[in-house]
Design brief:
The protein has helices at residues 17-49, 59-88, 90-109, 115-147, 153-179, 185-188, 190-204, 219-239, 253-273, 289-305, 308-323, 331-338, 340-360, 363-381, 389-416, 423-465, 472-479, 483-492, 496-502, 505-512, 516-522, 527-559, 569-573, 584-596, 607-623, 648-652, 654-660. With 662 residues, the chain is mainly α. It is found in: Cell membrane. Residues 628-662 are annotated as: Disordered. The chain crosses the membrane at residues 21-42, 62-81, 93-111, 123-145, 157-179, 185-205, 217-238, 250-272, 293-321, 333-352, 364-383, 389-411, 432-454, 474-494, 539-560.
């Protein structure tokens, strides 16, 4: 059974409505994106709160799902929710997203379980949050595009993007502050904001776009897309976990099957979308250059920066801050504060770029943004493990400034290039590319880092421990710890050497036979970060070079997005005259033939001369783009109602075609 929703266009909003829409959607985006990163820096407090040791067997995969569950749920559902919102109302489903997200936050705050049960509860409740986040992400840009005129969309979407990307940095600082109070506070902070936003959105926001007739839902497209993305993300998630004697899980049957099945479903999805009447993924939109290049450059930018925050936090929290004497209890807060320059760069250049792109077009601002980001990644690549803070601050400021320059013009170009009736779907597609890029970035970054660590870490640890009176078997065991466990140990503030040597009976017996000076060195909080710093920096430089390459490719592609393009629904509804290209040579030929047959206009012209003139004028009309010129060409013996031959201008249909252009 197919239900229908009456298409209707709401009355024009008051002049201040656009600012209400901007402030509410910005609040929603800020809340959702803070939630994406607030856990990264709060994980030590969360694991202590639910009584879990992340270095125990089997904990790594659960840890990854706690981190990535929100993004996975959001990415899978974005396009579907955007498509549904075009039919049932963007504001209505945006409001629902606020409510669902808030309920998920309440459940996370009340998480009752401990140990592994608590981990699974966190994963499930994060998925609930992700469902709400999908509604928010899918409709935010579409609501703003409806509310703002074309010459102000860049500024509006730029401010909204500041909330989206700036929120990911704010989440790091806020996570550090709240986790120092109580781990549940990082989820509780969303509840009052979510309740306020839900009520405010319900009261203040209203539909401005005409809702389409509800068509049959593309169930096969939705199912194949969800299963395809889920398969790929499951494969990427478990690929970075150790499998048997391998440092990574690429040889795991689960990874191979998940990736194969996921890719197969995505291929099936593309085929299905070309066959159904009402597809969830409008592939025809990619025929518009501004839309396709905008999404692909956004995808490459998301891949370049998606895992950056996580890697920088590991760098700060696990290596640099302990080397400078900051206790593990205080590293989350300090690491969050140290990343503020990246947010400042984005906050400064985001609105400026949005305003200027409204005036001069998005191409060169988006291109410049990616180029500046590439410079920032090159500068980060040149830093040592123990850097001077202000040099680091400047480098991440440059990265943030580049992302700020890029985000607003690119989003405005995408959303302005589609018809109003497809803005919900287009917004969902844009957000899907962004979220998929960020999730893919996490998998790629971890793959590159772990691959490099698996080569350099055993040699470094063996060399660093051979000066101590430790048995060779113990040194070999420590040298071959899974690289992922070492990374998470650094991030979470655990010292594997102290845990293995001072918290077991065998370890305590071993330490009892070591000189006191060696025991103090091995269990010192600075020793382990210093030990892994060199191989970690080698791995991190691979990531920075990869990000540099991705941003440079994005900059090159952005050059080809063309001049500013805004889809005008009113012009699109006017009669389409012709899609045939007009070339100079063809037009010159038609004009030459008209000139050669000019005798046909004379009263004493023969039938053949008049027919020749009619054919020449028909050819000229066709060259100029009048669609009915050939169809209206009469037979040569056609006569007028007065018994004579039809006048040449009537016979060619030139006058009628000309009128249709007015």
């Amino acid at each position: 059974m197919v239900t229908t929703a009456s298409p209707r266009r709401m009355a024009p909003p008051k002049s201040n409505y656009k600012w209400i829409a901007l402030s509410n959607t910005t609040l929603g985006m800020l809340m959702a994106t803070i939630n994406q990163t607030i856990l990264i820096i709060s994980l030590p407090a969360v694991f202590r709160g639910i009584h879990v040791n992340p270095l125990h067997s089997g904990q790594t995969s659960l840890l990854l799902w706690i981190l990535m569950g929100f993004n996975v749920a959001t990415t899978i559902l974005l396009v579907s929710f955007g498509r549904i919102s075009d039919t049932y109302g963007r504001v209505r489903l945006y409001n629902l997203g606020f409510l669902v997200f808030t309920l998920g936050s309440v459940m996370l705050f009340l998480t009752p379980g401990k140990g592994t049960a608590g981990e699974w509860e966190l994963i499930i409740f994060r998925f609930v949050q992700g469902i709400g986040g999908a509604f928010l992400f899918a409709n935010s840009a579409a609501i703003l595009t409806d509310a703002f005129p074309a010459n102000e969309r860049g500024l509006a979407l730029g401010l909204n993007q500041i909330a989206a990307i700036g929120g990911s940095v704010i989440g790091l600082v806020l996570g550090g502050l709240l986790s120092a109070i109580d781990w549940r506070a990082i989820f509780l902070v969303n509840v009052p904001v979510g309740l306020f936003g839900t009520v405010w959105a319900y009261i203040a926001l209203r539909e401005l776009s005409s809702m389409q007739d509800a068509k049959r839902i593309d169930w096969w497209g939705n199912l194949s897309f969800a299963l395809g993305l889920l398969g790929v993300m499951v494969g990427l998630t478990y690929s970075i976990s150790p499998y048997q004697n391998h440092a990574m899980g690429w040889s795991s049957p689960l990874v191979i099957i998940s990736l194969t099945v996921g890719i197969a479903f995505l291929i099936a999805f593309l085929i299905i979308e070309t066959m159904v009447d009402s597809p969830m993924f409008h592939l025809n939109l990619f025929r518009t250059r501004a839309f396709s290049i905008g999404n692909f450059t956004g995808l490459m930018g998301a891949i370049a920066r998606g895992g950056l925050s996580f890697m920088i936090i590991i760098w700060l929290q696990g290596i640099w801050l302990p080397l400078h004497g900051v206790s593990f209890a205080n590293t989350p807060l300090q690491a969050g504060i140290d990343t503020i320059p990246q947010m400042v760069g984005f906050l400064i250049f985001g609105p400026i770029s949005g305003r200027l792109s409204d005036r001069y077009g998005p191409r060169w601002f988006a291109t410049l943004g990616m180029a500046v980001s590439a410079i920032g990644f090159i500068l980060l690549n040149m830093l040592p493990a123990d850097f001077h803070y202000w040099t680091f601050a400047f480098d991440i400021f440059v990265v943030g400034a580049g992302m700020g320059l890029f985000a607003s013009p690119n989003t405005s170009a995408i959303m302005s290039s589609v018809p109003a009736r497809f803005r919900g779907a287009a917004s969902g597609m844009r957000a899907t590319f962004m979220n998929a890029g960020m999730t893919l970035s996490m998998g790629l970054f971890f793959t590159m880092v772990i691959s490099s660590l698996s080569t350099g870490l055993p040699v470094t640890i063996t060399r660093g421990l051979r000066h101590f009176a430790l048995p060779p078997a113990v040194i070999a065991h420590l040298a071959h710890l899974p690289p992922l466990d070492v990374l998470f140990a650094a991030l979470l503030g655990y010292n594997p050497l102290k845990m293995l040597l001072a918290r077991t009976a065998a370890g305590k017996a071993l330490l009892a036979h070591l000189p006191a000076s060696q025991v103090a060195t091995l269990t010192n909080p600075r020793f382990f970060p210093q030990l892994i710093a060199h191989p970690f920096m080698d791995a991190l430089r691979v990531v920075f070079l990869f990000s540099t390459a991705m941003t440079l490719l994005s900059a090159v592609l952005s050059v080809f997005r063309g001049e500013r393009f805004i889809y005008d629904d009113e012009s699109a509804e006017a009669p389409v005259l012709s899609t045939r290209p007009l070339t100079h040579s063809f037009l010159v030929l038609a004009l030459s033939l008209v000139w050669l047959s000019k005798e046909g206009v004379q009263p004493e012209a023969s039938v053949e001369q008049e027919a020749s003139l009619r054919r020449s004028l028909t050819l000229l009309a066709w060259a100029l783009g009048f669609p009915d010129a050939q169809d209206n060409e009469p037979e040569e013996d056609q006569e007028s109602e007065h018994g004579g031959h039809a006048p040449y201008h009537q016979a060619t249909g030139f006058s009628a075609a000309h009128d249709s252009r007015k």
